[in-house]
Amino acid sequence: MFRPMHYKNNKKVVLLLAFLLLIVILAGCKNSQTKGAKSEQAFTGTQGLVVNFLPNNPPDKLIADSNQVEIPILIEVRNRGTYPAPDKSERWSENDVIFLSGFDPKLIPNWRVDNKDSGEENPKISLSLKSLEGKNILNPEGGYDSAEFVGSLDISNLKIDRYKPSFLVTACYNYVTRATPTVCIDPNPFSLTKEKKICDVKAVSLTNQGAPVAVTRIEEEILRNSFNFKIYFKNVGGGDVIAVDKLNRCAPAPSSEKLDRKDIDLVKIVDVKLSDESIKDSCKPVAEVDGSRDYARLFNNEGFIVCSAPKREEIKTAFTTPLSVELLYGYRNSISKTVEIINVPTG
To answer: Does the domain spanning 49-173+334-343 belong to CATH 3.40.50.2000?
Structure first.
């Protein structure tokens, strides 16, 4: 049957529009998936601050053929976790510091730190001056900055042919873990009636929360007058957990105040909330630090607390609600590199 030419043209237009619409839909799905992946990436991870030597800074080998030889040490600093959050009034403090140690201060007496004279035997850089925001939806990679130490080797005091100092870079900083799993509140979990329930009381396993200490598991127990929550946490970052009130003792340099073994493996319980109600004061066991009984201790990198919420008469049926856990702690991780300095007589 004969069809007019304009009919064929209209059919082509319709097919073209349908094809373009399909492309738009697929692009929208891809963007949605990308945003979802970035959002998930922003709030996961097992690290806080990560420090690394930049290539050839310091070099593997230095030739000391003049009276003063500079030793460049350039560090990249990345924040792989979620603290500090941009939507909260959180900032790095003066206690959040990168230290340099491991060398003989008689041989390397002078240091410049970020192009300023240090005047200290063991130089340090405050993180409060760095752009190191935590990971978030807009910045799923986290903040990045650098730190530069430049030492001056005093050849007159170098009486040997080769000197191999091992430069130790130590990052000491506050960090926060936040976890908000959903739990089931059921006043009658063992009821024999066949009523339909929205949830069942069971253990909740978590992955990680974008921090070097992770809340790993929540176990719930229903007692006669209370709901009990056993909250497990673990050091997953590979560094050392330090009581946040003792972070000022983290410096590797000799000082009158040094970290004691009892200052290690302690996290501070900032808050535990069931829905919007704090149950922090019920949490046990707790450790005391300088009169504060807000701490929980880790053994072999793991610990737990048990927190209770009283049953209320108005709760008749099961429902789900968030259990919010916030932990505060100091953290320490370090890297090192050995440099061979070859003493070449100048005359």
So the answer is: no
Query: Which residues of the chain does CATH 2.60.40.2310 include?
Result: 49-173+334-343
pLDDT tens digits, one per residue of 45-61 = 999 999 999 999 999 99
More confident residue, 69 or 309: 309
SS3 245: helix
Phi-psi region of 330 (alpha: psi -120 to 50; beta: other; left: phi over 0): beta
User: What are φ and ψ of residue 296, in 5° steps?
Assistant: -125, 145
Task: Give the span between the Cα atoms of 97 and 51, in whole angstroms.
Answer: 12
> Tokens representing 202?
């069971």
Digit-coded pLDDT (tens) for 3-37: 555 545 565 555 555 555 555 455 554 444 444 44
What residue has token string 């978030």? 136
Coil, helix or strand for 20?
helix
Cα(71)–Cα(49) distance, integer angstroms: 24
Task: Please write the tens of the pLDDT for every residue from 124-168.
Answer: 999 998 989 999 999 999 999 999 999 998 888 888 889 999 999
